[in-house]
Design a protein that fits this description.
Layout (H helix, E strand, L loop, with lengths): L15 H13 E6 L2 E6 L2
Antiparallel strand pairs: 1-2
């Protein structure tokens, strides 16, 4: 039996300003393993 998934149909076209915020977040935060769990760590 074939399994099907419900995938919402939406158009996601963020502006360049939103992409810049996402890039800044991605550059400054890294995961760090603490006691076997990952915690966010800021490079700033």
């Amino acid at each position: 039996m074939k399994q099907s998934y419900l995938i919402p149909n939406f158009n996601f076209n963020p502006s360049e300003e939103v992409l810049a915020i996402i890039r800044q977040f991605a550059y400054t935060f890294r995961p760090m393993e603490v006691d076997g769990q990952y915690e966010p760590f800021s490079l700033n």
